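User: Hi! I have a protein structure encoded as tokens and I'd like to know what sequence might fold into it. I'm fairly new to this, so please keep things simple.
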């Protein structure tokens, strides 16, 4: 029997063994897509039973594009003093949240660059003011590299920064900046971003303070399937530690291939040791399915429509994903690299879920269900 077949069969047992990195890389590389998606769906049924697929109404806010980190794949940032650089003030940010409130949204995802001119008080005052003006909105803000940058500017430790932010109204830390948590890959694409260990440590600190966190993964930099699974292994391991400590772990895992259109990849010497740069729809679907099978302790796997489009995201719902993400309303980081669609309406997200045979359910950022769409399921879907 082929190796991939026996591994997948093992994963269909009632209490399947934890998948090793080697076995996950084997099924990633060699199992037929159909088999991978089938096993991923079986795992999805165990981890997230039922027919609901969740979505959220939220807004991305990129409060500053000033950044000193210079990731090779990033077309969004501008260096300090650049004529196109910007930093939004509290009123501009608040105005965007008012628009979100009108649509019934409940969360902002606010991230920017590592801006060395902003002192810690700029952030704490912003969080306090936004909490006061918008008490119904969860403030999920800043990625680990921003927290590290603020710690450096302020002379505090990262956990002290996080603690002050939590006391000022921070609800959660989005998983931005993880990209590939494999240092050999990471150093090639973001030499100044810091090690995988740093990202994991800041996330662990956030979780120890009760902040809500999610895990992300940008892939397609020329890394091998084993390296992609290695990234997932680091997420799985931290999730295990969070469970042992009684901390809230990652709510979800969301992955997408790097967008290449507008950046300077051709000019840098990235390794091309497996599937080239970026990822096709099929490669993306394999990645989602493997992440569902491998990450047995992360409940929610998200399909990424902004990079793959709504149609591919719809297929991912039949291959392990149980969430289609959010409306976003505005996106400047991925879109700077060439993606065309930067927001989706509630109607589009619901229609995508319905067309895949599931029931749309509105959620908040902690995956609490807020509203389930009334749908008549046909007998084949029940
Ligand atoms: S990805 Fe983030 S950290 Fe890297 S250059 Fe862009 S804004 Fe800066």
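Assistant: Happy to help. Inverse folding works backwards from shape to sequence: for each of the 382 positions I chose a residue that suits the local structure. Here it is:
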């Amino acid at each position: 029997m082929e190796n991939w077949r026996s591994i997948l069969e093992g994963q269909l047992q009632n209490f399947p063994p934890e998948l090793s990195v080697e076995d996950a890389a084997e099924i990633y590389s060699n199992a037929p897509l159909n088999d991978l998606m089938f096993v991923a769906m079986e795992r999805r049924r165990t981890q997230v039973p039922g027919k609901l697929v969740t979505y959220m109404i939220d807004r991305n806010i990129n409060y500053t594009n000033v950044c000193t980190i210079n990731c090779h794949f990033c077309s969004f940032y501008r260096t300090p003093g650049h004529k196109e650089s910007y930093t939004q003030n509290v009123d501009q940010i608040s105005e965007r949240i008012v628009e979100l409130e009108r649509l019934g949204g409940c969360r902002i995802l606010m991230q920017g660059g590592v801006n060395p001119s902003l002192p810690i008080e700029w952030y704490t005052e912003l969080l306090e003011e936004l909490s006061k003006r918008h008490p119904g909105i969860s403030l999920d803000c800043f990625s680990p590299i921003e927290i590290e940058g603020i710690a450096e500017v302020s002379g505090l430790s990262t956990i002290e920064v996080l603690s002050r932010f939590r006391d000022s109204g921070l609800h959660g830390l989005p998983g931005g900046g993880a990209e590939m948590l494999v240092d050999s890959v990471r150093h090639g694409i973001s030499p100044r971003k810091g090690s995988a260990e740093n990202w994991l440590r800041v996330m662990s600190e956030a979780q120890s303070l009760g902040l809500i966190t999610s895990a992300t993964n940008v892939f397609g930099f020329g890394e091998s399937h084993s390296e992609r699974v290695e990234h997932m292994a680091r997420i799985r391991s931290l999730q295990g530690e969070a469970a042992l400590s009684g901390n809230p772990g990652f709510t979800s895992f969301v992955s997408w291939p790097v967008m290449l259109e507008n950046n300077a990849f051709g000019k840098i010497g990235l390794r091309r040791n497996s599937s080239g740069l970026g990822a096709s729809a099929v490669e993306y679907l394999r990645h989602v399915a493997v992440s569902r099978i491998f990450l047995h302790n992360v409940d929610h796997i998200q399909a990424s429509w902004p990079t793959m489009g709504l149609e591919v995201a719809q297929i991912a719902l039949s291959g392990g994903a149980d969430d289609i993400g959010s409306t976003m309303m505005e996106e400047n980081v991925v879109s700077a690299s060439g993606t065309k669609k930067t927001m989706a309406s509630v109607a589009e997200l619901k229609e995508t879920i319905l067309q895949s045979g599931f029931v749309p359910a509105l959620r908040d950022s902690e995956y609490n269900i807020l509203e389930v769409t009334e749908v008549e399921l046909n007998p084949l879907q029940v």
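A useful reference point when you look it over: The first helix runs from residue 3 to 11. Feel free to ask if any position seems puzzling.
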